[in-house]
């Protein structure tokens, strides 16, 4: 029964992947991508990768799906002309052969892996007690490969700056995205009042439990950012001005604290991002606490987009959404 369920899920994944690629309508393709991400999270649950499943559902299916939906909304005016275009038979054949070739190469690479596959999991498990945390994912991300995690946080901040750089000069320092207007007594307004308290509790629990159980700052930040965006979309709140000092402080506090912990490790343990005996877990907690507001702000502001107005109103000519 378990094998049959796994086969059905695998076939559904392949069908959704093909659907997403061949769909001519952009909205349909994005919808397929979101469903694909959610179904893929079930696959990770089946493989006992709960942390990866949470990340896939929150970021792969949720955040990325929302970004793509925003892009679809902006490209609606050009979609009709693009849909009318047709590639030549030679181009389609080349694309099909290239896709088939890449698939075969990936399959051969997987089949050529040695048995058992090389892994550092035993070494990570043996050294996990030195970090003071019970969740091996947290230990790996913030101790054994902390430099990668630091660079990921910095890349997110740089990505936000890149989005902000797209703003017209007259809106620089203003509020990103449109001012949403919705019926305060409608379903969206109701959800924006009911869901955020629940989402905040769930997000904070995932953050707190991440040291010893599945969860962590990325999953928590995604849920908290989603609750903030829901309030904005219901018209119950507005995006902040990007020239606010508290906002900019919250964005940079995570990477700066991460670097400070790394320098402390260089002084105490003789290696950047190293930890002296007994200091690993306190320093991991400091990094997690500092990165949480950074990730919440960056993820939410990335979805808001570039600054588009200087006041609480939408720029002239921009309709409500």
Helix- and strand-based class?
A: mainly alpha
State the strand order across the main sheet.
Answer: 1-2
Q: Give the beta-strand count.
A: 2
What about the largest sheet? 2 strands, antiparallel
Distance between the termini: 46 Å
H-E string: HHHHHHHEHHHHE
Domain MrpA C-terminal/MbhD: 11-76
Subcellular location: Cell membrane
Protein name: Monovalent cation/H+ antiporter subunit B
Keywords: Cell membrane, Membrane, Transmembrane, Transmembrane helix
Protein topology:
Blueprint: H1 2-22, H2 26-46, H3 50-84, H4 89-111, H5 121-127, H6 136-144, H7 146-164, E1 175-176, H8 187-209, H9 217-233, H10 245-268, H11 280-304, E2 307-309
Antiparallel strand pairs: 1-2
Helix pairs in contact: 1-2, 2-3, 3-9, 6-7, 7-10, 7-11, 8-9, 9-11, 10-11
Please give a structural write-up:
The chain is an all-alpha fold and 321 residues long. α1 runs antiparallel to α2 (26-46) and α6 crosses α7 (146-164). It has helices at residues 2-22, 26-46, 50-84, 89-111, 121-127, 136-144, 146-164, 187-209, 217-233, 245-268, 280-304; strands at residues 175-176, 307-309. The chain is built from eleven helices and two strands, in the order αααααααβααααβ. A two-stranded antiparallel sheet has the order 1-2. The protein has a domain at 133-311. The radius of gyration is 23 Å and the shape is globular.
